[in-house]
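User: Is it possible to get a 3D structure for a protein together with its bound compound? The compound here is guanosine-5',3'-tetraphosphate. I've pasted both below.
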Amino acid sequence: MSAENCNDVRLLVMCTNFAAEKHKTQRRKNVDKTPYINHPIGVANILSEAGISDVNILCAALLHDTVEDTDTTLEELEKEFGPVIAKIVAEVTDDMSLPSAERKILQVQHARACSHEAKLVKLADKLYNMRDLTKEKPENWTDERISAYYLWSKQVIDEIRGTNPIIEKQLDEIFRREGLIS
Ligand SMILES: Nc1nc2c(ncn2[C@@H]2O[C@H](COP(=O)(O)OP(=O)(O)O)[C@@H](OP(=O)(O)OP(=O)(O)O)[C@H]2O)c(=O)[nH]1
Ligand SMILES: [Mn+2]
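Assistant: Yes, that's possible. Here is the predicted structure of the complex:
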């Protein structure tokens, strides 16, 4: 069954299954080595909780790290799930051939030009990762690296404010607690 003939529920299940297969050998960087798929599912859950019901956005959230972190290509996503979902994923995918520091600068520079759909996925991605950071330090991360992640996340978020008040309020609670806003 091709994506254009699918109902929304079918599409969501297909994307969840696709992401689970692609991330199946990956783990988060926490001590318990949580399965990586918890992250994309959690990002989609943040969006759903905030009232987002656009299936293309929720599917893009489920798939958002497949191209960056697995052998998945954008062409594959387009073939499986259509151009709308593939484009949102493309917008939130870093060029992994570049050094980490350069990717971080580019995220700040490119954030504002992203589509509304991609900005929503970005907000939820950063919220999930910062919540993880407040729960537990990733293995081998120094306090300085954690502080730098909060600071950089705020730089990205500051470029895309006005996208979703519910998620931005939750982000601001974290930034306030970290002393990055008053
Ligand atoms: N906080 C946290 N992050 C973890 C953990 N395990 C894996 N990650 C991933 O690590 C990335 C952040 O670590 P960095 O060191 O800054 O990433 P980098 O390798 O791409 O430079 C996030 O990627 P991302 O989702 O692509 O987002 P982004 O940071 O590129 O926005 C996040 O999903 C964990 O246990 N805690
Ligand atoms: Mn992510």
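The chain has ten helices and no strands. The first helix runs from residue 8 to 22.
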